[in-house]
Amino acid sequence: MKNVYLLEIDFEFNGQRQTITPTILKDKENTILIDCGYPNFIPLLEEAAYRHNISLDSITKLIVTHHDVDHIGSLAALKQAYPQIEIIAHELDSPYIEGKNKPLRAVQAESTFDQLPDEEKPGIEQFIAFLQSVEPASVDVTVSSGEHLPWCDGIEIIHTPGHLPGHISLYLPTSKTLIAGDVVVIEEGKLNIANPQFAWDLDEAVRSVQKLLEYDIEHLICYHGGLFQGDINKALKDLLKVYLS
């Protein structure tokens, strides 16, 4: 995985220890960040990038896999701090990133609010307010499925909906690397669908996992879990058995 850098970031959120793995791609002209964490994560991104001798002021582009808050929370702040950054996202996700549409996680939460016990409602109200407080950012370039971007020896956009409708994964043919976003996560060394109970469309999420089998993947990077260790093809098939049996 030449010129692919995993930014492993450990932090505490809502009283729980978590780890996320944004990724940086580099070539002679471009430094591309993929996803950027929660709000106020610039110092954590700076520290993680510095471990690879990369400075955030060298970033030229930022590709968003989808608009969940742990992937776009620092997007607007990064754009303000480093205005040269071009923001790239799937055409279906762009209206949510730009604040034109209500975040779909807020829509989900609101749809179940009236059925919740009264003691749970304040927490959900706080969650909705948090999502809606995330500062929007303008998307400079929208992409669609199958599109090939010319940077870093080539990047193929794979539309992998289900987790959210505009979710994308990235395939790097030269190194046979898949940057999965949240189409799959690593849990206890195994692949799983990210928070299946909250998938926007679980059947579609399963079909997106099936789509990954069309690619020759030697390296699999998950936003939640980092670099997968093991037989990727077998792990994907084992995961599908769980949901298709």
What number of structural domains do the residues give? 2
- Distance from N terminus to C terminus (CA atoms, Å) equals 34 Å
- Looking at the structure, the CATH topology of the largest domain is Metallo-beta-lactamase, Chain A
Number of helices: 8
Strand fraction equals 15-25%
Helix content: 25-40%
Query: What topology, given as strand order, has the largest sheet?
Result: 1-4-5-6-7-8
Rg calc:
17 Å
- Unreliable spans are none
CATH architecture of the largest domain: 4-Layer Sandwich
The protein's oligomeric status is single chain
CATH superfamily of the largest domain: Ribonuclease Z/Hydroxyacylglutathione hydrolase-like
Largest sheet: 6 strands, mixed
- The outline comes out as globular
CATH class of the largest domain: Alpha Beta
Number of strands: 16
Secondary structure category: alpha/beta
**Order of secondary-structure elements:** EEEEEHEHHEHHHEEEEEEEHEEH
Mean pLDDT across every amino acid position: 95
Explain this structure.
It is built from 8 helices and 16 strands. With 245 residues, the protein is α/β, with parallel strands linked by helices. It folds into 2 domains: 4-100 and 136-244, Metallo-beta-lactamase, Chain A (4-Layer Sandwich); 103-135. The chain is globular and about 55 Å long. The two termini are 34 Å apart. The model has no long low-confidence stretch (mean pLDDT 95).
